[in-house]
Specification:
Beta-Lactamase, Enolase-like, domain 1, Arc Repressor Mutant, subunit A, DNA-binding, homodimer, about 350 residues, 3 domains
Chain lengths: ~350, ~350
Amino acid sequence: MEKNNEQLLDDRKVKILDAIIRNYLATGEPVGSRTISKYTDLNLSSATIRNEMADLEELGYIVQPHTSAGRIPSDKGYRFYVDHLMKEKDREVSEMKKFVIEKTQKMEQVLKSVAKMLATNTNYATMISAPTYHNKVKFIQLSSVSAHQILAVVVMNSNIVKNHMIDIEEELDNETLLKLNILLNSALNGLALQEINLATIARLKEQAGIHSQVVSDVMDALAQALSEQEDLQIYTSGATNILKYPELTTSDNATNLLSAFEEKDELISLVNETLAETSSETGIQVYIGNETPIQTMKDCSVVTATYELGDGVKGTIGIIGPKRMDYENVMDNLKTLRSQLDGILNKSKGS
Amino acid sequence: MEKNNEQLLDDRKVKILDAIIRNYLATGEPVGSRTISKYTDLNLSSATIRNEMADLEELGYIVQPHTSAGRIPSDKGYRFYVDHLMKEKDREVSEMKKFVIEKTQKMEQVLKSVAKMLATNTNYATMISAPTYHNKVKFIQLSSVSAHQILAVVVMNSNIVKNHMIDIEEELDNETLLKLNILLNSALNGLALQEINLATIARLKEQAGIHSQVVSDVMDALAQALSEQEDLQIYTSGATNILKYPELTTSDNATNLLSAFEEKDELISLVNETLAETSSETGIQVYIGNETPIQTMKDCSVVTATYELGDGVKGTIGIIGPKRMDYENVMDNLKTLRSQLDGILNKSKGS
DNA sequence: TGTTAGCACTCGTTGTTTTGGAGTGCTAAC
DNA sequence: GTTAGCACTCCAAAACAACGAGTGCTAACA
């Protein structure tokens, strides 16, 4: 925090800004010159601090809620803090791992408990998206369940299983079914879902050589089932933490935020956004106030992390809290989590 | 509302009580004697009303928030209202049906939109549980997906499909697999999941005649997969409606309620509770205040309805709001919904 | 005997005023 | 460049006043 490659900020100003923000993060109250005067080891009188603060305000790093109140950080101030001032903790990571791993059950369970743990750890609202497998077909099987129903099962590379029930008009004999199975497996194996389009299906029908209506129907149904977009699963926790922060409770702000957590579609676009913004080497992204892609969260800070499960499979974790959030703690949590999710989730694949 | 088989309530008191409650439901404000004096067609002076109100208070049907305030209904008052006073609307039901049916997609989608519609219709928080199929096995299939993986697919009577991936040590040849499939189907077909226990499996192993470790392993894994309790899916909507009612916002009440909606485990016990209480012929249950099985909701009213999908498959719908909820509207909604869910959901079976 | 007008009283709500104090900006002295 | 001092601002909390909706009670009335 000695360095300042930022415009015009001399060493002392940086120190003061740092002190202001830290103090505000801790108390949530506007901080005055006298406080800083004693807080720092700069040994400066409050009057001096006042002058510096006036400068910092002019530069846009802090603002006054009203005359005769202390200063609070602006978005720009927070940004500077996150980019330059914040210390990176390096704490031991064992506890977290243990907590999650203990009960490695289904993926869903794991994700839920990860979200929950993060929420209790940070006291903010959290979300985590299930990894999105853009995956290849590994195995397909059609089985005749009853006279008028065919069950199609598709296993993906990641061992995710999809099934789809197909209603048919007339019965399909076992022989044809077997033939179809072989055909499908040899034709579609290794293809990504996106690669299976109308053309592929048409060619398949051709190859099948059996020009009965039933076969055609089954193929179409299967194609449709495969093309169906699996919708992004999102798990949240601690949404009510939002109510703990008065600055988020004003107006119907809180309601909107809570709704967003219940409805989840805004969270989905958040996930898509962050996955698109191929974030820096750390994989962690901080949105302060208006920087956020989601309008509903413009009074919050949003910290997201993308995690990767080895084979290019990605997901997103998000923490939503007030702008005066404990960035250090949050980012620390996300960082360790990110490094562990790979191991944790791979153990519990298979939906 | 002419009849009063309730203790000591003469006709006039009933009318006054009715007026008080209706008024309070509409305004949310304590209602005074003067209001009632004009509201009803009884042509009584406020003084007379006051006397009657004093009586009603002594009998426990209404309470005063404080001296020199109007009266509001007590739990007992609400109960009386719901049991005897409330009119049953009979409105046309078409709109609701249309709205939901239009987009009959997957069950999950349908349930979500039902909850949403209810929430917007009533302005309360709503939940709906997915139907619980205590179901019989219709079809089982083991398939070899790769050298060390077997996929077990089980189709239930209701066309719900469960799949489970089984890791195996040594490869299983096709012939054995086929044999197993036949065996499993003939042995387990028609059995309810609960009927498949260790004994059944042991007997099956016996019958298989193949005493290889692999077969035994597969059987065990399958048994375990089958016995796994599918956890009750619950969809909610409009949880934030809770914040609209000041009487629920006091203290950390709202937080607890909202958390309940996020965490869902309390909702699950609510569902279990209501399913157990084999409710009356109408299938609708009203819990007022402390009557509710869920402590968190002791300041609310909870109205639940169980719906049935022909084949004994049941689910629960719940509406959670303030005690001064519009019971008529709520119950009306639930009633029509109940009568339609059967048709709606049967169209979109298959998870 | 039931009903009602009248009245004194209660008490929460709302609005106004007062006060205190935290914090500022500016000026003048060091 | 730093700081002590001072006048000034303005929010928050407390204190106060007025209002009015509503009550219970009593006494008169049909």
